[in-house]
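> example.struct
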């Protein structure tokens, strides 16, 4: 199941447009905050899909029966670019556990790359809702490698993939590797082109560099 929030008229598109804007991108703090804002909106939308149960809440003047979430998800993110999205999700799912994956593109001299998976820190995800965030779903390589590593910690009852932007290529590659019966992909927009270096077009550039500064290749 694919959920493209940018198709709805909401403030979401303002935040996404600022993430794309070459001029506004010069402000790293605002770039990070806008990714956090997207994470917060994604969290709200995902919360509608969770399991709920009625609980009694005692107020100063009586009691109130309220429907509250029964699911306690695991929030996973791919370092480093995924951290602002993760913070946004965590600010709403403040009772969630967290998992972190170190995955990156390792380039060769001919500009081809492989995905390197260095490190995973995660609780058990068995029979839990897993929400994994990464700003850009380009080829899907980092996400696929990260999910394979995380699935060694159990079989979740549902996987939510959260990304600011996705490409058709990335979504199709994920579809080939995983069953979408157990997965929902949430994105702001789907762009249909990749560069020779596998960057999304029109995209927004390198989210990690824009959020935290250029890295030494």
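> example.seq
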């Amino acid at each position: 199941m694919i959920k493209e929030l940018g198709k709805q008229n909401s403030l979401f598109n303002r935040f996404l447009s600022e993430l794309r804007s070459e001029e506004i991108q010069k402000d790293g703090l605002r770039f990070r905050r806008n990714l956090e804002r997207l994470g917060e909106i994604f969290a709200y939308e995902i919360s509608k899909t969770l399991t709920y149960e009625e609980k009694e809440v005692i107020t100063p003047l009586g009691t109130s029966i309220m429907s509250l979430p029964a699911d306690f998800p695991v929030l996973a993110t791919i370092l480093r670019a995924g951290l602002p999205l993760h913070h946004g999700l965590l600010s709403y799912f403040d009772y969630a556990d967290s998992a972190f994956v170190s995955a990156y593109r390792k380039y060769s001299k001919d500009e081809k790359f492989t995905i390197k998976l260095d490190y995973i820190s995660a609780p058990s995800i068995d029979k839990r809702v897993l929400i994994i965030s990464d700003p850009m779903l380009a080829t899907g390589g980092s996400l696929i490698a990260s999910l394979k590593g995380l699935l060694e910690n159990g079989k979740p009852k549902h996987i939510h993939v959260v990304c600011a932007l996705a490409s058709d290529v990335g979504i199709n590659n994920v579809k080939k590797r995983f069953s979408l019966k157990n997965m929902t992909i949430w994105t702001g927009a789907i762009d249909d082109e990749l560069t020779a270096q596998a960057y999304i077009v029109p995209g927004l550039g390198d989210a990690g560099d824009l959020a935290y500064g250029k890295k030494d290749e």
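> remarks
The helical segments are 12-20, 28-47, 83-92, 141-150, 168-177, 207-212.
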